[in-house]
Each structure stands twice: as C-alpha cells, then as structure tokens.
Amino acid sequence: MSEPLDFEISHRPDFALLTVRLSQGQHMFAEPSAMASMDTSVTLRSGLRGGIAKTIGRAFAGENVVVNRFTADAGPGEVRFAPGPAGDMSHYRLTGNRLYLQRGAFVAHGDAVEVSASWQGARGFFSGEGMVLLQATGEGDLFFNSYGAILEVEVSGNYIVDTGYVVAFEDTLSYDVTVLPGLGVGAKIKSLLFGGEGLVCRFGGQGKVWIQTRTVNPFLTWLHPYRPQRSR
Questions:
Q1: CB of 170 within 8 A of CB of 107?
Q2: DSSP assigned state of 23
Q3: CA gyration radius for the chain?
Q4: Which domain, by its residues, includes 162?
Q5: Beta-bridge partners for 89
Q6: In terms of DSSP H, where are the helices of the chain?
Q7: Which residues, in sequence order, are CB contacts of 123 under 8 Å at separation 6+?
Q8: 147 inside domain
C-alpha cells in the first residue's frame, strides 16, 4: 500500500480545487489537463502508463491516453489540480477493492493505484455514457470529479439513479440499466433507441454510490433558447 497523500479539497462544491503536498521523493499521477500550479521542487513527466492495451482502453473510456507523473525530486512540494467541469471533487481510499467511474470523472491517484477501462457491454451502451467505464484498482488514494456537487449515498438493498447522474460506485454493488418504472411504451422505446430521459441504473447490494447534482445535457437544453440568433 502506498503512503497516504497529504491533501486538501477546497472551494467545494462549485469550483473544487485539490491541493496535494508531496514529501521528498513521493509521486502521484493525474490527468494532463488537471494541473493548475506546482512548486519548482516538483518534476512533471508525461507518458503512457499500463501498456498499449490499457492505454487504448482508457481512450475508449473517454480519458486521455497520456498520464502526468508528479515527483517531489528536489524536496517537498505542492501541486494543485483543477478539473475541467465546474463542480465538486471527492477522495476515495482504495484497499484492494475496485471503484468504477463514469467517463471523464478521473482526476488523480497515488502511486499504487491503477486506472484502466472496464468493458460493460450492452448495459453500458444503453446507459448513454458509452460501453466502457473506468475501474480503479490497487491500494491508495483516488480523486474524482463531477459536474455539480457530489452526493455520497450508502446503498443497502436496491437503489435507482438516473444514468446521467452516476459518478462512481463500489464494486460491492451490482447494477443493471433499465427504463424508469412507470413510463409508457412509447417513452420506453424512445429511451432505449435514442438515449432519452428515463434510463436508470438499478443498484443492488451493499456499498456506496456517488451521484452528481447536475448533468450537462439538461443545462444545454435550458441554455439553447438564449443563444444569439443570426439575423437574416
């Protein structure tokens, strides 16, 4: 198990910022676009991690194929990370289990953690988020982000979450993608064929699921009428 990272998540939940204080020789990994600032004692190196197969899998999962490695080579140093979406960030400590993340949610992780793709087949396709999820394995610190605030829910039994709001969930939970109970036949067909509203993840078992309080598509729909119109 890697040494725990000394970190702080500030400016939550609207514009979360992750600050990590690395000790001499300690290193961590992050998405290339996430670094906001760092001390000069920290060295940045970019490259592939996990081999060609895992790199290709990350691409299919909507993640960057290149991962940045930050190492405190010249003494202790501080690195700040600010992910793209305006929203929240969460920390999870892996202890040999797995955590599944929706595409675009990964921000950073410690040395002994590996983030790779996990093929989900048809149930991933119908979720509207793609057929591949990210899975984080190993032992160490993991950081992930959302669009909007993050709500952590402890599931015991069954729980339903709209597919667009799922950020992450533990591997102790099983899940199936289905149509929201109560929809008519026409609405069900629309959901299955066009990824329309009403597709949900039905979780079962015991474990945690993280959901976000906003999704991009409804926001764009709300914003659309206010777009400037070209005069003819």
A1: no
A2: P
A3: 19
A4: 6-215
A5: 145
A6: 51-60, 121-125, 185-194, 216-223
A7: 175, 176, 177
A8: yes
What span, in angstroms and rounded, lies between the C-alpha atoms of 197 and 136? 28
Q: How many domains does the chain have?
A: 1
CATH classification of the domain holding 146: 3.60.160.10
**Do the Cβ atoms of 203 and 130 come closer than 8 Å?**
no
Give, for all 232 residues of the chain, the pLDDT tens digit: 678 999 999 999 999 999 999 999 999 999 988 999 999 999 999 876 555 555 555 555 455 568 899 999 999 999 999 998 899 999 999 999 999 998 889 999 999 999 988 766 555 544 445 557 889 999 999 999 999 999 999 999 999 998 889 999 999 999 988 877 665 545 544 545 444 556 788 999 999 999 999 887 777 788 888 888 877 6
| Residue 19 lies inside a defined structural domain of this protein | yes
CA separation for the pair 162, 197 (Å, rounded): 8
Chain mean position to CA 56: 18
CB 19 within 8 A of CB 78: yes
Cβ-in-10-Å burial (0-12, 13-18, 19+) of 41 comes to middle
228 found inside a domain? no
The pTM score is 0.83
Answer whether residue 95 is part of any domain: yes
What are the two backbone dihedrals, phi and then psi, of residue 224, each rounded to the nearest 5 degrees? -55, -45
